[in-house]
Amino acid sequence: MSAISLVGRSSSHFTRVARIFALELGLEHTFRPVLDLTTLEPAMYAGNPALKIPVLVDEAGPLFGTENICRELALRSGRRPEAVLRGDVRARVVANVEELTLHVMSAEVSVIMAKASGEGRCMSPKTMRSIENALRYLDENVDGMLSALPPQRTLSFVEVALFCAVTHLPFREVLDVSSWTRLEVFRSQFAQRPSARGTEYRFDAA
Ligand SMILES: N[C@@H](CCC(=O)N[C@@H](CS)C(=O)NCC(=O)O)C(=O)O
């Protein structure tokens, strides 16, 4: 099978989701950091016109979007049945946790980008409130979500994304999440996985 490369940042929660998937599914890959997220040149984002990371690059070219990348990794590994992707489980609690986790991740990106561009003070208070409201829902429903997942899974998109989201908020000093105690139990258990230990957040250096 041909080589695959993940283009992203070690400090990015979406990138970490893709990297954890690759590690858990035993897929060899290289990692190419994007050092400057302010550049407006798509070539610096492996050709992504949206100027976003992560991007998977393989013999078929670039693949944009974390969910697309996780699906491709699961298919490539030949272990698709062991991986629970977004939408695979019909239970309402799983669907809502998937949606709200992705909301927290995207809303956090907008907070970070606004801060970086000096517009932090103009940030709508609704954005932070919606992140906090979503975290409260996630805290109340994480155990229900876990019980609704197939027990024989190796990994699920929803767990990986939730782990990456709750660890990223304090890493980027956007929000202290320690008061959500059920999320903290989930975080500390998931953090034991070698794939989580091998992808701890850090800022890539040139
Ligand atoms: N929908 C995209 C979102 C990816 C995303 O927002 N990535 C962040 C890094 S965690 C990014 O590229 N931020 C740079 C920017 O928004 O300019 C995905 O699922 O991959």
| Share of β-strand residues | 5-15%
The biggest sheet amounts to:
4 strands, mixed
**Number of helices in the DSSP assignment:** 7
CATH C-level class of the largest domain is Mainly Alpha
Q: What are the distinct ligands in this entry?
A: glutathione
Radius of gyration: 17 Å
Overall average pLDDT? 96
Measured between the Cα atoms of the first and last residue, the distance is 30 Å
Low-pLDDT regions: none
- Domain count: the total is 2
Shape: globular
Helicity, as a percent range: 40-55%
Q: Which CATH architecture of the largest domain would you pick?
A: Up-down Bundle
SSE topology string: EHEEEHEHHEHHH
Backbone structural class: alpha/beta
Summarize the structure.
This protein has 206 residues and is α/β, with parallel strands linked by helices. It is built from seven helices and six strands.
What does this entry look like structurally?
Helix 3 runs antiparallel to helix 4. This protein has 206 residues and is α/β, with parallel strands linked by helices. It is built from 7 helices and 6 strands, in the order E-H-E-E-E-H-E-H-H-E-H-H-H. It has a 4-stranded mixed β-sheet with strand order 2-1-3-4, covered by helices on one side. The chain has a two-stranded parallel ribbon with strand order 5-6. The protein folds into 2 domains: 78 residues, 3-Layer(aba) Sandwich (Glutaredoxin), CATH 3.40.30; 110 residues, Glutathione S-transferase Yfyf (Class Pi), Chain A, domain 2, CATH 1.20.1050. Bound molecules: glutathione. The site of glutathione has 12 residues, from helix 1 and helix 3.
